[in-house]
Write a structure and sequence with these properties.
Elements lengths: L1 H4 L3 E7 L5 E6 L9 H17 L4 H4 L5 E4 L3 E7 L5 E7 L20 H13 L2
Antiparallel strand pairs: 1-2, 1-5, 3-4, 4-5
Length: 126
Amino acid sequence: MIMDFNEDVRFAAVADSDGQILWNSQRDGLKNLVSPSETKQTMMRALHGWKENANAKNYLGSGLYSISSYEKIKRISIPLDNGKLLFCTMSNTPLTKTNINRRKSYGHLADMGKILSIVDFIKSQK
């Protein structure tokens, strides 16, 4: 569903609390910018970061998501139930009618409202 909602989503995966990838999908026709082993290491660092920041929950509430933006992509991590993690990458060169040549758009925003509504929908189906 996440891949369908926005053509800028390049990759999506769900990992368990130990960093094992339970599910993943990559946009057809795109080559990896990062090797699968580096992607897994990145997911492990994200999982570790969410675990480290769990103490902030008492003061700030539950974490919703984190975005790291790079020249070529954005990396998004979303904590799920039972220590699982949703990890997505999005292009930083969005394809729109006004940006048909896929020029870089560093201010290009990830539509987190849509992504989180999909996560909430999936949780409600359990």
